[in-house]
Amino acid sequence: MGTDKIQNKRIKELLLKGIFTMCITISVFFFLKTLIVRQYIPQYYKLIGKSLEKRREIVYKKNLYYFLNFCLKNLPPFSTYRLVGLDKETTDYARAYYYLYPHINTIGPEFILMYKTKNYSEDNYSLWRKVDEDNFILKKNVLHN
Amino acid sequence: MFSIINFVFYFLLQILTGYVFLLSLNLQRQLNTIELLAISYGIGMGITSMFVFLFNFDFLFSFLTMVFLIITFLIINRKRITFDLRFLYRPFSKSEKVLSSIIIFIVLYVFFLAVIYPMESRDSLLIWGLKAKAIYLKGGFPFDLLKESDPDIFHLDYPLLIPIQEVLFYNFLGRFDDALVKVIFAVWYLSFLIIFYFLLRRFILRKFALIFVLFLASLLRLGRFFSNGYADSVMAFYFSLGFLFLYLGYIKEKNNFFYLSAILSSIGGWVKNEGIAWCLINFMLLWIVAFLYYFKNEKNKSWEVKKGIIFYVIMMLIFILPWQVFRIRYALKSDILREGFFSLSRFLKNIERLYYISCVYLKEFFNFKNWNLVWILFLFSFLLNIKNVFSKKYFLFTGLFLGFFGILSIIYILTYKDLHWHLTNSVDRLFIHIVPTVIFWMAIFFEDRLIDKIDIE
What we know:
Number of helices of chain A: 5
Shape of chain A: elongated
Number of helices of chain B: 22
Shape of chain B: globular
Structural class of chain A: alpha/beta
Radius of gyration of chain B: 22 Å
Helix content of chain B: over 70%
Mean pLDDT of chain A: 86
Number of strands of chain A: 5
Order of helices and strands of chain A: HHHHEHEEEE
Largest sheet of chain A: 5 strands, mixed
Number of domains of chain A: 2
Low-confidence stretches of chain A: none
Strand order of the largest sheet of chain A: 2-1-3-5-4
Distance between the termini of chain B: 51 Å
Low-confidence stretches of chain B: 453-457
Helix content of chain A: 40-55%
Strand content of chain B: under 5%
Largest interface: A-B, 36 and 40 residues
Distance between the termini of chain A: 104 Å
Oligomer: heterodimer
Radius of gyration of chain A: 27 Å
């Protein structure tokens, strides 16, 4: 009876240790994969010590960040816009919307923000400001009587 | 320098607010100091944000009122303020030191991720961060977002605990810093692990409690969500702890914990809309406990539980009702729970979706990157323990799991959205709400079946 109990205890201990080891191995594997394979360590190194806006530029990526700042600088206060060139389901769209607030994306806006979009035109809108051929702002034409 | 002092003041305000609540219910006697501080933070975050909301986003007036009330209360009750650090007296063994070190490393990593990145994930930006930015700039609810061509993306019907806390933080800091603000989530994470540990310690030995805390902390998904400003991690905090304190109150027959369960569960309804459903699950479980005592003719215990039920109702009125009234008043509609959503005929028509939903759940259970072996171990252990699912030790957990997966599945069966899209965009986040309770269940099961009590005593 005593031997059975000891053996039982040993089996339970082995089982617990085995499960624990497997769990740790899985966690360490995915943790290292995230850091090394997905190159998070170089990104952390780039971010440390930088100002908030510099970190935002690194995370949002230069093109988008520069374009958003261009829009913020040139849009009149509280003006409305529509953003073309970013899918609404993407994180970049969310970042753009967040960064541009209090400007609002509406139907029939005063401005259309063209991001990485060539040769786009729309009735009633004409070129207002541009970064380059792919990134520019269209403004709604004001009707004069 | 001024920013640092204000930064500290922000957390002091939250902790003192929660502490005052715990003191008023005499709960400080049943919690050690560290646990008390951690729970105070969680409760304080709920109370202070509701204060601000009820005072119509007047941050200065809310702050002054809260400070006045806190100081008055603490002065009147100064003799009841005690500290309990007995848990530190027993030295840590070598293995306990190793486990603790790994947990501390993970916590520090989560803090690092929280502060190094500006707000950059979709939901943290559009649903929470944007509202916080708008409230900070406008000093009130951002009704201008209703002019958006597709306002559903903001979920304007969602409660405001998180945006208001972010704004409170910005106000204390004196500037808009959407990287540093995420430290409030990291502190939630730290508090969660602390409370989880001490809850486990009431059932299992220190070494095993640390193992299960490490198991929880090692879930990359959970840590990531506590660092990127998502509400689901905060939801897990309130829902899990709301249930676990209910469980603790029932098993240890300490009825004060029902009050703690009530406030934590109700604050969950102030975090996200699904928090209302999860709060109701905990509330119904308490009713079941009340019925059990009633049928066993244990009148004293039955009365204590009834007090807990009354407290639940009061807490729900305080934390859930105000936002729902506001939401209905300004017609802030849910994109999921539309008119005619709950329809029996549509439910019966769509019941065949259950097969696909189950397959997605199963696929998520095998997502080792997100969940390690949690779900596999849980399913295996649950089946091993199937005879005991309605025993005193386990029936509350069983009720919780049935309630959680039941409600979740009903929502997916009835959803108007594309089912595949809805599932793939939400199920992994929603599983975060229940996973701490699943791990706690496993700790109870391991203590019950796998740990040799005689030897370890």
